[in-house]
Write the structure tokens for this entry.
Amino acid sequence: MGSLFERTRTSVTLFGALLIFLGAAILANPSDVTAFIVRLMGFACALFGLMTFVAELLQAQSKDAIPFGTLALSGVLMMAGTGVVLFADSVAKILFILIGLLIVASGLRDIEYARTVGANDEDEHKASLRVGIITLAAGIFVMVVPAAAVRVVPIVSGVFLVLDGLSQLFLALQMEE
């Protein structure tokens, strides 16, 4: 009996084609991809809040039995989700500013590591320092120009999806039936 995740030539080919299709779709309209994902998350948040509210209403025997905390949480989720859906572009920029902060912190950690390794291994010190400076610069770029990052990240993702899809198709050609 074969494994559930056995990779056949057909499945690898289909997976590769799907990756290429997804990458091409992202590359065709990169700015809308980020807004779509943010809107989707906002919609999911609002829907979860609504479903929680309705479930509490259906389970309650009387109007007084509905827990206030659950109702408040469901209301906050619905409002936050709706706000994210309505202001997806602004939320995406805020998210990229936060991501930029994380990247800056990572770059600073790499630079600190390079400083502590300096006396022990000169090559490791230089490599870690270079990586730290590049990471720090990338983080600052993402924080300062989040609108550009919103456009660049989907393009990079789309390119990598297409390349991964092509590698899957190449792998499929190498497989025996």
Observations:
- The chain has one domain: 9-174.
- The helical segments are 9-28, 30-59, 68-86, 88-117, 122-144, 146-174.
- The chain is about 85% helix and 0% strand.
